[in-house]
Design brief:
Layout lengths: L2 E3 L5 E2 L2 E3 L2 H10 L7 E4 L4 E6 L8 E9 L7 E7 L3 H14 L3 E6 L10 H18 L7 E7 H11 L2 E5 L8 H8 L13 E6 L7 H9 L4 E2 L11 H12 L4
Length: 251
């Protein structure tokens, strides 16, 4: 079924007031009065709705509601270094598909492309996150934001999650598999894991500088490898998220 997002304030009794944009989209889809679709409140609840006989498609009638099935049991925040145009679009899109809760962009020393107008870039990526959430059966729209320079980013990553992982292409000793098996034992159910939120940090096209890696280590963050192959900057966040989702039973 088609999926739309609204705010809790737009829900009153058995009716949902749809946005002008969604109303226009619904009209273009030519939905029948009795044809069902989802309207999600953005907080994890899906409302099964129909249009009734309203020709302007401005209000949806609630038939039933249910918990969104597309939300993982763990909160994942991915910190992605700024990179060129379409690469960042791809990283955001795939992160949303895989179940990310929040995407935070940052500037590291080897970033080759930082937008001049960051708020405009964030707004565009937030739009991509919204459209992807609709198609990916998500119950929440992940937020996209930025947090400035490298050190500020690391400090924030540590402060807002139970556990933080720093991915470094030149790490040889510590692999993501061993870290996750220790943090999320496979003999426990996902709801039994003590770690409820994770911050994942991935680098820019040029990789991280050695002093950036040392700063992460100074904050007691495990610096880990994603394998023997060098991943592109837009691929690493997806692989990191996929490993987390698999280990916690969310794939």
């Amino acid at each position: 079924m088609f999926r739309f997002f609204t705010t809790p304030e737009s829900i009153s009794g058995n009716l949902i007031t749809l946005s002008e944009e969604d109303s226009k989209h619904i009209r273009s889809l030519r939905l029948r009065p009795d044809e069902q679709f989802f309207v999600c409140d953005g907080e994890g609840t899906d409302y099964i709705c129909t249009l009734g006989k309203r020709e302007d498609c401005s209000v949806a009638d609630i038939i039933d509601k249910q918990k969104s099935s597309g939300e993982p049991t763990i909160t994942c925040r991915v910190f992605i270094a700024f990179t060129q145009g379409e690469r960042l679009d791809y990283a955001v899109q795939k992160s949303v598909e895989l179940g990310v809760n929040e995407i935070i962009l940052f500037e590291s020393e080897r970033c080759v492309s930082v937008p001049r107008d960051i708020p405009k870039k964030i707004a565009r990526l937030q739009r991509i996150a919204l459209e992807t959430a609709k198609l990916a059966n998500r119950g929440k729209v992940p937020t996209v934001s930025s947090c400035g320079k490298f050190a500020e980013m690391v400090d924030k990553a540590v402060s807002i999650s139970d556990f933080t992982i720093f991915f470094y292409e030149s790490e040889d000793d510590l692999h993501i598999k061993s870290v996750l098996e220790k943090q999320f034992p496979s003999d426990r159910k996902s709801e039994e894991h003590s770690t409820k939120s994770v911050s994942l940090i991935t680098g820019p096209v040029g990789g991280f500088e050695a002093h950036e890696v040392e700063y992460a280590k100074s904050k007691q963050i495990p610096v880990v490898s994603l394998g023997p192959r060098i991943l592109r900057a837009e691929t690493a966040p997806s692989v990191a998220l996929a490993t987390i989702m698999y280990q916690t039973g969310n794939l």
